[in-house]
Backbone:
């Protein structure tokens, strides 16, 4: 049996994967880059001073007027990227001389989700005015200034969970409490409806391939993406994952409408201000792509982003409301019709993809010391087994 | 299960060196010393863990040999009840050694290869058009996955990712079969009371 050394991938193996799994061009680019760099050095800690020097270099290129970087500090949060907050005293072309709080978002050497900064930058810029998002300022797409690719965007006020509340890492299972969810819940759905009904066709989204409506193209590209990642990253193979991949391919639904999909739409990925209970920013657009709106809606009902109500009687999808109520609210807000069979398909897809990301993509970079928080990735791998439990039960139900 | 001690320990060392130690107050000598000891201890564990089983087997082998030599030289005729116990324990140790020949790495490799080929077979059968064949395959794989996931979920249940606390699998200690066990040790590590158990 030929053994593939995934920690030192050969050019032939990389090429065979690219040929076997046809992905969007930008996805192919970042996945290929990941494999070509894999045998390279582990992640080395980057100091705050080094981050500021990189930022200085980027801004020297981008800005023609004097500026000053102030108060840099590390932010905790996401499992996949490094983030530094700072304020910039600069001449904003629109506002004139001003001081703006900003955030640097930079990749580690290899991430739990290997994605495109260019795509993330374009999407944040494009949806500005559609949804509350930070303003995207600059991009270092290839790591010409920073040690790794990075973007700079505006700092958004707000918190990911109510003060004093508990949740697992990354905001999974956040409980907003009975009062807060009454005002956050409708915004949560309204924003999703706005995103899915927005006409993206005139936006600058050149790093996203455009699938054809009425076909299975969007979901097929997506399956190719994640099946390829499974091949690239998994350690021990898992027969259930192979079975799931086969089922997903056999049952691909056509997307009647092509929408911009956030693809990780959940608590932990939006900020809100506690004093007025308003969602102030949607973050983490790195998995964004064009596809079927059912994908995002199905994700909001997954058990690992949900929890039971305080009296234990009701499962609250995304910690907001029962799934049936969420569907009704979404249909009313968007005018789009939800097909429950397609929702079920994407629930299976999400159980598959979530398990894949945490088990395979959590393992491989950690195995090679490639991130700034390998220990957190190790911990998050624990989510993969309940996710596979959900996947197994769902596959049994549809058998 | 890919959450393995060797990777976890390596990640802990990295977190200590890259993040925690630089943040420890340089004037707090005790905290500095303890942090460095944690790193050194973890590095030692990481180095020794791969040979722990081999070491134990070697130790048992040496003591079985010593016991045999001693009981031949100083049998029940020359010693007290200890010699009789020693004869019995040497035989028991020899039996355990016979059953403990494979290296943990061999065990892991065998699992790895079987998983790979089972998964390949799932792909091959999945590619055929016969729906009855595929249905049979699905049934077998889903049943095997249930057993596997009950164990894996039990292993990680303390990480807090189970959405429904009322639906967690049985503790892993209850799920794993006790193959070939003749004795059970009671109490915590470091204690040495041995109780006879029926098998």
Residues:
């Amino acid at each position: 049996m030929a053994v593939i050394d995934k920690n030192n991938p050969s050019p032939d193996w990389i090429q065979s994967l690219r040929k076997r799994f046809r992905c969007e061009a930008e996805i192919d680019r970042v996945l290929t880059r990941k494999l070509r760099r894999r045998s390279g050095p582990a992640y080395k800690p980057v100091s705050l001073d080094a981050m500021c020097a990189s930022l200085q270099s980027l801004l020297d290129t981008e800005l023609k007027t004097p500026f000053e970087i102030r108060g840099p500090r590390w932010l905790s949060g996401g499992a996949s990227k490094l983030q530094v907050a700072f304020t910039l005293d600069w001449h904003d072309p629109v506002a004139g001389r001003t001081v703006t709080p900003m955030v640097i978002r930079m990749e580690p050497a290899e991430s739990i989700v290997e994605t495109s900064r260019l795509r993330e930058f374009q999407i944040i810029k494009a949806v500005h005015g559609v949804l509350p998002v930070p303003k995207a300022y600059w991009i270092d797409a290839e790591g010409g200034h920073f040690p790794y690719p990075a973007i700079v965007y505006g700092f958004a006020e707000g918190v990911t969970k109510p003060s004093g509340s508990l949740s697992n890492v990354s905001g999974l299972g956040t409980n907003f409490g009975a009062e807060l969810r009454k005002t956050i819940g409708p915004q949560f759905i309204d924003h999703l409806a706005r995103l899915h009904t927005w006409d993206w066709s005139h936006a600058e989204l050149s790093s996203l391939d455009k699938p054809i409506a009425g076909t299975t193209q969007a979901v097929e590209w997506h399956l190719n993406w994640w099946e390829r990642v499974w091949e690239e990253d998994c350690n021990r193979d898992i027969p259930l994952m192979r079975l799931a991949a086969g089922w997903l391919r056999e049952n691909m639904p056509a997307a009647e409408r092509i929408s911009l999909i956030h693809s990780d739409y959940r608590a932990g990925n939006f900020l809100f201000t506690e004093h007025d209970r308003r969602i102030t920013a949607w973050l983490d657009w790195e998995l964004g792509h064009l596809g079927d709106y059912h994908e995002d809606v199905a994700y909001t009902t997954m058990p690992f982003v949900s929890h039971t109500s305080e009296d234990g009687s009701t499962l609250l999808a995304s910690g907001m409301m029962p799934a049936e109520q969420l569907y009704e609210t979404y249909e009313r807000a968007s005018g789009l019709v939800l097909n429950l069979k397609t929702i079920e398909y994407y629930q299976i897809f999400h159980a598959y993809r979530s398990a894949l990301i945490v088990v395979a993509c959590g393992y491989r970079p950690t195995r090679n010391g490639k991130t700034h928080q390998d220990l957190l990735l190790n911990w998050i791998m624990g989510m993969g087994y309940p996710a596979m439990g959900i996947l197994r039960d769902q596959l049994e139900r549809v058998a | 299960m890919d959450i393995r001690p060797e990777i976890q320990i390596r990640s802990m060392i990295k977190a200590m060196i890259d993040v925690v130690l630089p943040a420890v107050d340089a004037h707090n000598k005790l905290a500095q010393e303890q942090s460095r000891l944690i790193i050194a201890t973890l590095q030692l564990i990481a180095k020794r863990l791969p040979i722990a089983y081999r070491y134990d087997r070697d130790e048992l082998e040496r003591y079985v040999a010593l016991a045999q030599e001693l009981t031949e030289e100083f049998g029940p005729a020359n010693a007290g009840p200890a010699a009789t116990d020693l004869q019995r324990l040497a035989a028991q140790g020899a039996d355990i050694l016979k059953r403990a020949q494979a290296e943990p790495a061999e065990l892991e490799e065998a699992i790895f290869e079987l998983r790979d080929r089972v998964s390949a077979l799932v792909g091959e059968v999945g590619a055929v058009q016969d729906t009855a064949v595929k249905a049979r395959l699905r049934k077998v794989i889903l049943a095997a996955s249930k057993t596997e996931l009950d164990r894996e979920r039990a292993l990680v249940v303390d990480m807090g990712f189970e959405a429904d606390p009322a639906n967690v699998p049985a503790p892993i200690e209850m799920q794993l079969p006790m193959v070939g066990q003749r004795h059970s040790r009671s109490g915590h590590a470091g204690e040495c009371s041995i109780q006879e158990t029926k098998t």
